[in-house]
Design brief:
CATH superfamily: enterococcus faecalis protein
Order of helices and strands: EEHHEEEEE
Radius of gyration: 14 Å
Number of strands: 7
Oligomer: single chain
Number of helices: 2
């Protein structure tokens, strides 16, 4: 039986007892909440985009210890990723030309934090 993704389910994740290493980027890990999001919403591509495309660009252009990420999928099957410092300063914005992400027009807030050994991607409720 396939789970149906509901954005409200993300708020159940607070803290994380386990981290998951990215399959390619050795200095990128994610939390249990991100694993749930990727699995149930079928968006491992979003984790890959953040690990393999966006993080390297951020580290070149705007190295920081903390990034606030907003992801929104739209009704026209496009999406936007916006990355900033959490205080209103936007470092990077990227348009995704096509996605089948199951929730439209609702923002998902993620954080990407440097823990000196790796960058950890987490849901806002896990921070």
């Amino acid at each position: 039986m396939t789970q149906i993704f509901k954005i409200e389910d993300l708020s159940h994740f607070t803290g994380s007892g386990q981290i998951f290493k990215h399959w390619w980027h050795r200095q990128f890990v994610c939390t249990e909440g991100i694993q749930y999001l990727a699995k149930v919403a079928h968006c491992y591509w979003l984790v890959d985009e953040l690990a393999l495309v966006i993080l390297p660009e951020l580290l070149k252009q705007n190295p920081d210890n903390f990034y606030s990420i907003e992801f929104v999928a739209h009704a026209d099957q496009t999406a936007n990723i916006s990355v900033g410092d959490g205080n209103g300063h936007i470092y990077l914005e990227k348009k995704i030309n096509w996605t089948d992400f199951p929730v439209k027009e609702k923002s998902i807030q993620l954080y990407l934090c440097d823990s000196s050994d790796y960058y950890c991607l987490m849901l806002a409720s896990e921070y």
